């Protein structure tokens, strides 16, 4: 069985779209389709179907899914067994435009001798499973376990409290503001279509909305970042939230505005997770870099983060 085809199938499943899988694998969308088609021909079943919202896993695909993941875990263990200490450090960053990816880029600039393999897993559950299986060495996540501990064998350290910003189009009522308070956002429509029930970011936004009485809308399909920016740019009513370190590029005609939110500043609590029995020597360097590098942040007394966030050791 072609493991690259299996890897491609999983990339489509995890991202939900053939195009996004192609971007993550650095191949063309046509190549993704060919690999999946070849795997389906080899197995004699249909694994995925295309829909208006992306890719949907068939019943046969669901049956094959855990075995596909097991195949890649076995491959990773086989490779690691003959390259101890020499393989790339495999790190999950959730999204390549988000703050964790920026933190990892900073680490790479400081430690160019350490080879990195950057991946994007869907949610914390998938990340923890990958850490325990050894298919990734570390993962950036928000730890959402009120009153409970992380799974046995998994450790975490807080690495960044990232301030949220309001993103608006030029016709929005708050477009001209230099900063706003959470209280001032009450009554405004804030659209975050990427919220998925059961994820750590869904838990974050639910608590944020409840704490400040905000109307955070999740209606409609999530077509990705560019369509979201297009909609916000043209709307006098809709705005969205973005992290202060999220990298966004839009056409000059959009004239989008990033508005700081203070009084208090809502921050998203990023942590680094890893398996305690992972022997990769670069893990120590990554943790030390993330926990000792100075970063600008709001004063501790002026921030808000959910009650479920783990106790935070603030680093300067």
TrEMBL record:
Which ranges carry the HTH lysR-type domain? 1-58
Answer whether the UniProt record assigns the keyword Transcription to this protein. Answer: yes
Q: Positions of the region Disordered?
A: 294-316
UniProt KW keywords? DNA-binding, Transcription, Transcription regulation
Q: Which InterPro entries match?
A: LysR_HTH_N (IPR000847), LysR_subst-bd (IPR005119), WH-like_DNA-bd_sf (IPR036388), WH_DNA-bd_sf (IPR036390)
The record's comment on protein family reads: Belongs to the LysR transcriptional regulatory family.
The protein's name is: LysR family transcriptional regulator
Organism listed in the record:
Streptomyces wedmorensis
């Amino acid at each position: 069985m072609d493991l690259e085809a299996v890897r491609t199938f999983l990339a489509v499943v995890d991202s939900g779209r053939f195009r996004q899988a192609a971007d993550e694998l650095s191949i063309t969308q046509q190549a993704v389709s060919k690999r999946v088609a070849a795997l389906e021909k080899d197995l004699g079943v249909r694994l995925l179907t295309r829909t208006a919202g992306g890719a949907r896993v068939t019943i046969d695909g669901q049956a094959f899914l855990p075995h596909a993941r097991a195949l890649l875990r076995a491959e990773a263990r086989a490779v690691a067994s003959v390259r101890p200490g020499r393989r790339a450090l495999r790190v999950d960053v959730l999204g390549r435009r988000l703050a964790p990816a920026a933190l990892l880029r900073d680490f790479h600039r400081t430690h160019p001798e350490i080879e990195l393999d950057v991946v994007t897993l869907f949610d914390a559950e998938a990340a923890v499973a990958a850490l325990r299986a050894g298919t990734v060495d570390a993962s950036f996540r928000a730890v959402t376990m009120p009153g409970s501990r992380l799974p046995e064998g998994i450790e975490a350290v807080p690495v960044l409290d990232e301030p949220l910003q309001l993103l608006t189009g030029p016709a929005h009522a708050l477009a001209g503001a230099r900063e706003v308070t959470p209280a001032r956002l009450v009554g405004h429509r804030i659209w975050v279509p990427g919220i998925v029930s059961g994820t750590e970011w869904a838990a974050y936004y639910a608590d944020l909305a409840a704490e400040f009485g905000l109307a955070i809308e999740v209606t409609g399909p999530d077509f990705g970042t560019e369509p979201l920016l297009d909609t916000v740019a043209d709307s006098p009513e809709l705005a969205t939230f973005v992290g202060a370190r999220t990298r966004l590029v839009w056409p000059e005609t959009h004239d989008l505005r990033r508005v700081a939110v203070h009084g208090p500043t809502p921050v998203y609590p990023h942590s680094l997770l890893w398996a305690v029995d992972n022997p990769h020597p670069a893990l120590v360097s990554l943790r030390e870099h993330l926990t000792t590098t100075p970063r600008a942040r709001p004063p501790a007394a002026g921030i808000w983060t959910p009650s479920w966030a783990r106790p935070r050791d603030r680093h300067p």
